[in-house]
Each structure stands twice: as structure tokens, then as C-alpha cells.
Amino acid sequence: MTDSSIRLFVDMPLIPGAALGLSDKQAHYLGNVMRLSTGDQILLFNGVQGEWSARIKALSKGVALLELLKQTRAQAPEPDCWLCFALLKRQKTDLVVEKATELGVSVIQPVITARTQADHVNLDRLRAISIEAAEQCERLAVPEIRPPVKLAALLAGWPADRALYLADERRTEKYLRPSAEPSALLVGPEGGFTGAEIAAIGANRAVIRVSLGQRILRAETAAVAGLALLLATDPPQES
Ligand code: SAM
């Protein structure tokens, strides 16, 4: 019996017939939260080898041993899109990471700007939030979450072949459009970028200043709305 709603990310190779030992946290989740037992099946993915069904061979306190069965989905290419966002307070940063993962970004880059409200994050916690969002939204990969970087350093090391869309609330024309090219969205802090920051960003040749509409959106809303626009590339499959 497969309970396909249960998908777990595992950071290990997926080899047919192999026995896999999950973390005690995952064992607790399967046994105590989802009340599964020996013989039940779940889905696993590792971001590289697609999605696989696996049968529970043993499940007890802190121990979950699974046998890998068959591949249920091959690894499919995911959008090559980064989110660079000025770090927000904890709850809003968590929300942005969760939503950006659901929307399909490949890299999440927190940025320190003059008006950011935080200067450090707990990367392990953000990674856990991102893994849970990837498991829930049926992605086959988990985005890379990079340590916070200062805006000047981000711009200095910016790859010339990647378009950087600056979400600029003062821009009234040129709405953000979907792009299947390597791209990134840059969203400012609640207080906005300073004039000097806007000038430095604008001086970078990869930057395209875009509007997300007439209204001034909260930073977390701008991140979600911007990504939804930018990643609206692959139309839904006709049933
Ligand atoms: N500085 C602004 C102010 O207080 O007047 C507001 C900043 S807004 C809350 C936070 C960030 O969201 C902005 O830096 C920008 O990147 C993005 N943003 C908000 N509304 C936007 C819009 N309509 N178009 C493009 N970007 C927007």
C-alpha cells in the first residue's frame, strides 16, 4: 500500500533494492505523526535521481529502515531562477523561503542592505523549512540556501550571463515578464533600497528594473508575486 502523500527528502544515493536508514526525526514523523507501520510505502527523493517508492522494513523509536522499490518519477530539469531578497524579520524570512521553494527557485540568497531588519539567519532552520516545502509541493529538488551576503558583494560577483530583475516600486512601466533563461529576482527591504543602492544596482549591466504593479507591496508579497510572474513559464498540462 503506497501512501503517496508522504514524500521525504533524503540526502543519500537511491539504489534499487538498497536498505535505507532514515534520520530519527523522519522515523518519529513516520511512526508517531503519520502513524505508518512496517509494510507501508512512501516516496523518497534526493534532488538528483528522481522520486522512488520505498517500503518500510522496520519502524521503531528513532529507527526507520526502508527498502527502495522502483522509480516513480525521473529527475526533471527545474527552473534556473534565484531569489535575492533583503533579509526580513524571522517569520517573514521563513515565509519567503517556504513560498520561494514552492514556486520553484533553484537558489535562495538572503542579502544585507542598508535598511535590512536582520543581519544573520539560522541556515539549518531555513533549510528544514525549504525541505518541508519541497516535500509538500512535490518538487524533485530542494533549492540551495546561501549564507547572507552584503549587497555590494552580491553585485561585485554577479554572473554576467544571468539577468537580475530588480523589483523597483518606483518603476511604473516595464512589468516583470516570465523568463525561462537563467534569471534572478532582487527584492528590497521593508524600508526600500537607498538611492545610492538603487544607483549601484542600476550600474550593473545584468540588471533590469521592473515593476510588479501600481501598488507598493510588502517585501514578502513582492518576493512571492515577482517569482510567480517570473516563473510562469511552463503552461499547465492540458488534461
Ligand atoms: N521603500 C518603499 C517605501 O517604503 O515607500 C517600499 C519598499 S517595499 C515595502 C519593499 C520592496 O518590495 C521594494 O524594495 C521592492 O523591491 C518591492 N516592491 C514593492 N512593491 C513593488 C512594486 N509595485 N513593484 C516592484 N517592486 C515592488
Specify the number of helices. 6
The chain-level mean pLDDT equals 94
Structural class: alpha/beta
Largest sheet: 7 strands, parallel
Determine the N-to-C terminus distance: 26 Å
Order of helices and strands: EEHEEEEHEHEEHEEHEH
Uncertain segments are none
List keywords for this structure.
single chain, 5-stranded mixed β-sheet, 239 residues, alpha/beta, elongated, 27% helix, 7-stranded parallel β-sheet, 12 strands, binds S-adenosylmethionine
Concise synopsis of the structure shown:
The chain is an alpha/beta fold. 27% of the residues lie in helices and 28% in strands.
What topology does this entry show?
Layout: E1 2-9, E2 19-21, H1 24-33, E3 41-45, E4 51-60, E5 63-73, E6 81-86, H2 90-103, E7 107-112, H3 123-136, E8 144-145, E9 149-150, H4 151-156, E10 163-167, E11 183-187, H5 195-202, E12 207-210, H6 219-230
Parallel strand pairs: 1-3, 6-7, 6-11, 7-8, 7-9, 10-11, 10-12
Antiparallel strand pairs: 2-5, 3-4, 4-5
The protein binds S-adenosylmethionine.
Residues 167-169, 187-188, 190-193, 211-213, 215-219, 222 line the site of S-adenosylmethionine.
Protein described:
With 239 residues, the chain is of the alpha/beta class. It has helices at residues 24-33, 90-103, 123-136, 151-156, 195-202, 219-230, and strands at 2-9, 19-21, 41-45, 51-60, 63-73, 81-86, 107-112, 144-145, 149-150, 163-167, 183-187, 207-210. Strands 6, 7, 8, 9, 10, 11 and 12 form a 7-stranded parallel β-sheet that branches. It has a 5-stranded mixed β-sheet with strand order 1-3-4-5-2. The longest helix is centred in the middle third of the chain and has 14 residues, at 90-103. It is elongated. The two termini are 26 Å apart. It binds S-adenosylmethionine. S-adenosylmethionine (SAM) binds next to helix 6.
